[in-house]
Amino acid sequence: MAVKGLGKLDQVYDGSNLRVAIIHARWNKQVIDALVSGCIKRLKELNVKEENIVVETVPGSFELPYGVEAYSKKHQGFDVFVAIGVLIKGSTMHFEYISDATTNGLMTVQSRINKPVIFGLLTCLTEEQALCRAGIDEGKTMHNHGEDWGAAAVEMAIKFSA
Description:
Layout: E1 20-25, H1 29-45, E2 53-58, H2 64-74, E3 80-88, H3 94-113, E4 117-124, H4 127-133, H5 145-160
Parallel strand pairs: 1-2, 1-3, 3-4
């Protein structure tokens, strides 16, 4: 199973003037916690001040689009939003419906709020895949994708925020 990251950034980014909101689902807590921690770690490495990083929760991944949009309206001044969720395929069509709805919802929200929304939704076939992508399945090829989302947030906010 290949697990790759964002790769090298195209330039040096300084996020010291950015405000970042991380909105995350509460399902699959172990994986979510690792992804959120990885995202915050990378944001700080790119000079985003701790006091300018806000973390808020929603019940599940399906609620991420509404959560991001509602938070952006209620709390002004954020440059970028990172939506983090984890979906693990089960034996019903639920996975496909929620994956598709959440993906489309997040794409729509960023156009409506005119701010970048980083797509931090893991869509995994197994729990093992989710653990690997959160960097917490020892003995496997691991990479914490939360770190990639933190880097993407800084890049997108600096390049494209209004």
